[in-house]
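Bench log. Compound arrived from synthesis this morning; before running ITC I wanted a structural hypothesis for how coenzyme A sits in the protein. Inputs:
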Amino acid sequence: LTLKIRPMTGGDMAKITEILEATPEFTREEVAVALELIDIYLERGTGSGYHILTAALDYEPAGYVCYGPTPMTAGTWDIYWIAVDGTKQRRGIGRALLTAAEEKVKKASGRMVLIETSSKDSYEKTRAFYRDREYGVIARIPDFYSPGDDKLVLRKIFEG
Ligand SMILES: CC(C)(COP(=O)(O)OP(=O)(O)OC[C@H]1O[C@@H](n2cnc3c(N)ncnc32)[C@H](O)[C@@H]1OP(=O)(O)O)[C@@H](O)C(=O)NCCC(=O)NCCS
């Protein structure tokens, strides 16, 4: 099995759409927004403010990460989306995607990466994933997504 992390191409769309639609954590609305960002990136490239990397497992898309510089900041970047095929999780693909995005951010003189996520129980493995990669919870907005569902802001700082 060979895993390759590379910029997303139009040819990845069908499989990535399938992966997003099969991800139980994501609502229909979230899938629609995720696909919209992909469309923007495929049309306009990184000039759009979105950067997308695909993880290809034996040449087949198995996940992706969408990130970009946070507008109106100097050196702050956001991870907007990350998803790995439900049948291929827990094999290090998410870690490889996140590490690749972090390396690109560092090369671009990024100082920190922020990630927004939900406090819901169903996101516990997602939070474990980020904890493991040294992201700390630095803010919480109670009841942000819906009553009882807080928004958590996670951050990782890169030493200059
Ligand atoms: C979060 C996600 C991208 C992780 O991808 P992945 O390929 O499964 O992650 P990895 O195999 O690289 O896991 C890395 C580490 O994360 C943690 N982790 C991942 N899945 C976990 C689980 N089910 N339970 C506990 N810890 C978990 C572990 O520390 C793991 O390291 P280990 O396997 O050596 O113990 C994937 O689970 C996913 O797509 N989830 C649904 C979508 C989502 O929540 N996206 C984020 C929105 S903010």
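What the model suggests: Residues 23, 25, 82-84, 89-95, 117, 123, 125-126, 128-129, 132 surround coenzyme A (CB under 6 Å). Residues 28-44 form the longest helix (17 residues).
ITC booked for Thursday regardless.
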